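quick one: uracil bound model?
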Amino acid sequence: MIHPEQQRRAYLQAMGIDVWLPRVGDDAGLTEGSSAAAGLGWPELRECVANCTRCELSQSRTNTVFGVGNPDADWLIIGEAPGAEEDRRGEPFVGRAGQLLDQMLFAIGQSRDSVFIANILKCRPPHNRDPKPDEAAACREYLERQIELLQPKIILAVGKIAAQNLLGSDDPVGRMRGRPHQFGGIPLVVTYHPAYLLRSPSQKQKSWSDLCLAMQLAAEVTA
Ligand code: URA
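yep, here:
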């Protein structure tokens, strides 16, 4: 069944009328332009993602990876893209990196069920290559709609791909971490990807201080 909002958008698009995506906050960061995801609720958005064929990754995926967690979460964790295991199970961060992410969440009094976890891409890039810009662009409106629905108090971008895509920057993580950013008016903190921390455990201390910064920023947001 076509959702009424999707139908409305189809009409407007057929008439050549641009439909604008509402902003989360005052700051830019969100894409403006026509969007099939605008106005959708969680179930419709999930279905839209499950049926997405906007980029070539839809040909090779086993499952889309929509994201998991609490739809009222204060914390939104954004990673890169599903890997092989995530593609098989349809859930983000389920491998070794996911176990470390769970430990990081535990350390800040959160859990997989209390936060929401998503990725820049909903489908696995073959051989775990980096997402291509056109793939990230095609997927972006889904993530933006998730952010609008969640209205999190804090976004934690884990790893270079998430941080660069969300902040529109080419900087390495080392230059983006350790200070507050914003995405659509929502406080955002960058930290290392758990897969990187598994390879470079000496960086865990820095990651902990990023988590502390994120906790502080979240606490400053009035409920
Ligand atoms: N699994 C995910 O879901 N995202 C990542 O960024 C890495 C592994």
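The domain at 37-222 is CATH 3.40.470.10 (Uracil-DNA Glycosylase, subunit E).
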